[in-house]
């Protein structure tokens, strides 16, 4: 590429980053790529905040006595950790950043179908985040991120309504992003970009968007009812005024279980892109990976009751939810097997994104298998509400989703910024994240089976050694997250120019310049081949 | 420093759960080794050596079916085994001894039909099924005994039951497993599993203010229940002798089994299910005026007034409390 030879400081080609300058050009932009960057900055702030709460939790749990902060403060720590991480980082993470940036480019479109609604969704997200931050600044919330009734509606003395309003508002941002993606994928595909040629990342975001649009209204309604009962004592959930606390759990998990798939599906999409690129090979079982995303989206709506096996639900309901939980594991397994088969007879290289992909498969597999323990009725009775559950969902959410997000961020960083990150540091921090993560969360499986309940400020002394290991691991993990922050920011100024396609990847987004121009393509591309066609063209360009 | 890796098992169910856990773990390890091993081999064997561009392999229906169906069949064995234990846990044997536990921010209040009461302690004998009726005074709690591998949420407004047969004497943790506010992690106690003789000694010792039924009787009089429900001759309200366990005809034409939940509801919300032939709005609600422990005592007292076994209600006999049946 000619740009490699030029000094990027002086002779930058026009692109979406330098098309306009000034804060207005960002805050009033309708460019999906700039909105993606706005989201990237916002969710990084929330991730850092959630991470600080996580570190405080782990510090408190270094000793069994509960001597660092008092119980109320500790309860607020884990609540705010959960609320910021789930609603303000994990749910928007990949769709709002990488999805926003890439979905239009991958299908050969100039932008999303509704660019202004896209900007609106960011403002709504910010409004929701401000409410959540206000709840923290005013004194915090202590209900746990699950807002279980009647504790949240009647007994908690903290800023429940403020936080619930924040989550309620942020939900609309999620719905609008989902809506935008669905319409975009249906209506904006370039000529020749048939459904069967869509990159799997697009399929994953499409399936995610379906859940966002169908599921999020339910959690919005549920939280609105919590607010109404808390403010006006309308008896919906509190039995003392005629309500049913279990009703809340049904409504909450009807959204919040599918929300798990909002969080993980886009990460799976990232995996399909990275693994094909670094195996330099077409994907194995395209239609099974694409179809399994839809399968997860649909079956995911039918399994919420597995969060409630010990609430006294009918044992026949328990059977149903357990059986369907086993079924929903099948499409996830299909993906893992197909990624593995994709590597067969590939040409595999080990750049940073691929290291994250290896990490993802390992950690997500463990997360998925331990999910089967929890879907097994009699087993769940012992394990639910213990550290086993904490370990399980962190293996899926952090080991799966955050690792996929970091892998994707590294993979497309050259496209987003036009710069390369330092490869050595990238590999080092990927390994650090993997090691730190396992040291943090693996001991928690054992703690859970031993019986340490979750959300405990103080714990039985015999659990200390495993907790110390966990806290030590969290420190390593924290460093593993800070290092990329530093070198990615560093690369903005000092990184080597990336070139259009530094990894020799297939996909329309790699045919544009890096960073792309405002409208992505000078000429609307015409697609004539399947996704991941590595064998015919795409000579390796070393950026 | 202690580093326990396996919890104690103090019941047959706990041992069974351990076997299930081992089975799940063996399958998981085998699956993980297969997947990670394959990826490792591929990553090394097919590492990039130059500019080669391998030919794509589009897929294989046979493989897809194989790796969908076989794992699912394995999962069905998890499902089956787990469901078996879950069903076993759901149905207390008819000869269970009764214990009543009330969760309250942030303590467990335990009472025995014999009149013993304790806080954050539970004493049970080995070899005998124990059925615990759970009630909550405020928010949702969860009664969790790791050594027995059982827990059950304690939901306000409901009675929940759990049961177990302990087999190994010892002192085991009792935890609240559902987050319930400030001192959630302080809502812990001990389960003492004893030899039957020791248990009888323990039960006989300790000052008591009479059996639960006697305590219930005192409440029944203090709250003025007896005026109408035992002594009344004007027909304003039903006499409660022999009501427990019977099937009651309601004024809206439905029938209801007079069990613990029905009696509790009738105390707190008398107009919810009015007995046929009686008027609503006669009895005041006792919501907020009586603790969950008190309600349980009243139920035991009403039970002591005679149990009827309703036709088509086989559980009524199981609900009988052998210790105080026919007393007073």
Task: Characterise the protein shown here.
The complex is a heterodimer of chains A (543) and B (328). Chain A has 543 residues and is an all-alpha fold. Chain A has a single domain (31-511), classed as Cytochrome C Oxidase, Chain A, CATH 1.20.210. Chain A is 66% helix and 0% strand. The termini of chain A are close together. By secondary structure, chain B is an alpha+beta fold. Chain B folds into two domains: 7-35 and 60-208, Cupredoxins -  blue copper proteins (Immunoglobulin-like, Sandwich), CATH 2.60.40; 212-324, Orthogonal Bundle (Cytochrome Bc1 Complex, Chain D, domain 2), CATH 1.10.760.10. In chain B, 35% of the residues lie in helices and 19% in strands. Chain B has eight helices and twelve strands. Chain B has a five-stranded mixed β-sheet, covered by helices on one side. Chain B has a five-stranded mixed β-sheet with strand order 4-10-9-6-7. Chain B has a two-stranded antiparallel ribbon with strand order 11-12. In chain B, helix 1 (12-45) runs antiparallel to helix 2 and helix 4 packs across helix 7. Mean pLDDT of chain B is 89; it is low at 313-328. The interface between A and B is large, with 100 and 90 residues.
Give a short overview.
The complex is a heterodimer of chains A (543) and B (328). Chain A has 543 residues and is mainly α. Chain A has 16 helices and no strands.
